[in-house]
Structures are given as C-alpha cells and as structure tokens.
Amino acid sequence: MDAILEVVALVLGFVGWVMVGVALPNRYWRTSTVDGNVITTSTIYENLWMSCATDSTGVHNCREFPSLLALSGYIQASRALMITSIVCGTFGLVAALIGLQCSKAGGENYVLKGRITGAAGVCFLLQGVCTMVAVSWYAFNITQDFFDPFHYGIRYEIGEGLYIGWCSAVLAIAGGACLTCSCKMGTSEKYPLPHQSRGTVYSGAAPSRSGVATSTYGRNVYV
C-alpha cells in the first residue's frame, strides 16, 4: 500500500508542478471587466510580466513591464513566490524519484529512501504553499480594487491563470501530504519497537551445552 500511495503522490506532485509552469507565463491573470461600460473598444489583460490589449478586430498588442522597482509590492512578491514554487517542485520530483520504494536509484537502503521521500513531501508542500499564497494575494488585490468605490481606474476580474494556480497548489499540497504520510507509515511498519518480536518461535526444551537438544525431560519440568 505504501508503494501505491507514493506513486499516486508522485503523480499529483508532477501534475501540480506542470500546472505551475503553465500558470506562470499565462497572460490572463486578470482581465478588464465590462461591468458598467457602455462601449468597450478593447480588452486589457495582465499577468506578472506584461500587460496586453486586444481591440474589437482581434489585434493583440503586448508590452512588458518597464521597471521591476516601479511595480506594486504584491506583484514582485508573487513573482518570487512562483519562481520559488517551481524550484521546490523540481527538487521534490527528483527526490521522489530517488526515494520511491519501487525505484532502484537509491539502492536498498530503505532508511535513507524514507528520509528522501519525506524531504520530497516537504518540497511539494512548500511548492503548494508558495503557489497558494502568490495567487491568493494577487486575487485579493483584484477584488479589493474591484469593490473599492473610490477606485476610478480600470477594474479587473480574476483570470484563468489564477484558477490554474489554485488547482496546482491543491494538487501539490495533496501530493506532499501523501508522501509524508507514506514515509511515516513505512517507518512504523518496517522498524518495530525493540520489545516486539515477530516470527520468533521458542522451543519447549533448552539446548544443551554440546549444541544438541536433549530429548529426556525430568519430572520437575511439568507442573
């Protein structure tokens, strides 16, 4: 059961890692809303790296943000968190491939493989947490500006990139939790407590000094 759980956790972590790579360059982190606009000539959509616009004829025009320091603090933090998420997911995948019980990469040392599997679970958990914080923080600022009555600039709505990020975070957290639980279960099953003995059969007669079991029993042996 531990091997199956580890494989499922690896698949969840891998899918979450791929979805982070899809969400990061996605252009639709936020899109301009048409709520309250009588005439809409163009649609503006942005992500962490650039701002794009498309008109009614379907012509797209994108420009990258000119300065990193001129950006809002939450955008800079979201960039750092998403990059950290990808790095943690990469380390988690490598560690999971080495630490799996069905993998021959780590040899037959199951104590070391269990520790590597636990480290992979922690990396996946960090990936999910970083992604969740980045997309949730970004979405919070979108909703805050949208419902602010004193905000007279462009109002944005949540784009598909954030939904992909949320899904990837949930998958990564689930995969990391499964790897961590599998590591603990495998350790508790393979290494019992010292006072426990399994598969030991004790004979009724004690062996003699010469190494040959005696076949004669005295009267005092039976109670």
From TrEMBL:
<keyword id="KW-0472">Membrane</keyword>
<protein>
    <recommendedName>
        <fullName>Claudin</fullName>
    </recommendedName>
</protein>
<dbReference type="InterPro" id="IPR004031">
    <property type="entry name" value="PMP22/EMP/MP20/Claudin"/>
</dbReference>
<keyword id="KW-0812">Transmembrane</keyword>
<dbReference type="GO" id="GO:0005198">
    <property type="term" value="F:structural molecule activity"/>
</dbReference>
<comment type="function">
    <text>Claudins function as major constituents of the tight junction complexes that regulate the permeability of epithelia.</text>
</comment>
<dbReference type="InterPro" id="IPR006187">
    <property type="entry name" value="Claudin"/>
</dbReference>
<dbReference type="GO" id="GO:0005923">
    <property type="term" value="C:bicellular tight junction"/>
</dbReference>
<feature type="transmembrane region" description="Helical">
    <location>
        <begin position="121"/>
        <end position="140"/>
    </location>
</feature>
<feature type="transmembrane region" description="Helical">
    <location>
        <begin position="160"/>
        <end position="181"/>
    </location>
</feature>
<keyword id="KW-0796">Tight junction</keyword>
<feature type="transmembrane region" description="Helical">
    <location>
        <begin position="7"/>
        <end position="24"/>
    </location>
</feature>
<feature type="transmembrane region" description="Helical">
    <location>
        <begin position="80"/>
        <end position="100"/>
    </location>
</feature>
<keyword id="KW-0965">Cell junction</keyword>
<comment type="similarity">
    <text>Belongs to the claudin family.</text>
</comment>
<dbReference type="GO" id="GO:0005886">
    <property type="term" value="C:plasma membrane"/>
</dbReference>
<keyword id="KW-1003">Cell membrane</keyword>
<dbReference type="Pfam" id="PF00822">
    <property type="entry name" value="PMP22_Claudin"/>
</dbReference>
<keyword id="KW-1133">Transmembrane helix</keyword>
<dbReference type="InterPro" id="IPR017974">
    <property type="entry name" value="Claudin_CS"/>
</dbReference>
